[in-house]
Amino acid sequence: MDILIALIIALLIVAIIRVRKKLNEIKSISLLDFLQRIQNGSEARDISPAKLQKILITKNDTPLIIDLREEDIYEKGHIDKALLMPFDNFMHEVLVEESYEKEKAMILICDHGLKSKVAADILGEDEGFSSVLSLRGGMEAWEKYK
Description:
By secondary structure, this protein is of the alpha/beta class. It has two domains: 1-31; 41-145, 3-Layer(aba) Sandwich (Oxidized Rhodanese, domain 1). It has helices at residues 2-25, 31-40, 42-45, 49-57, 71-76, 87-96, 114-126, 138-145, and strands at residues 46-47, 64-67, 83-84, 106-109, 132-135. A five-stranded parallel β-sheet has the order 1-5-4-2-3.
């Protein structure tokens, strides 16, 4: 019995050491740094409603348009070619399941452009996706533009 307890304790210690090592590898940034990253990257990872409209009009090589809102909100109104993929599901698919190619062009849409902006920044800066954009102002801006 003492050997079993000692073995369990040893395994717990090894697990704790591994978890601490992984946590130390994760880069932590302050809220101010995070906000500055979002502000500085806004030009590079945003697309205006007018530019999105031009893309939708052309039939050639249309990017994947992903609506990150919930289904009930999506059903009340959405961009015709947009695929519904709520934020949590999308981030899981991209980061955990790795279901999307990093070179695939994507335009992310949400209500006001905040969730889609965060997702585009995470994917672009931290995960190496080269062609991810956020609709500036989200569906609110899109509705005003139309």
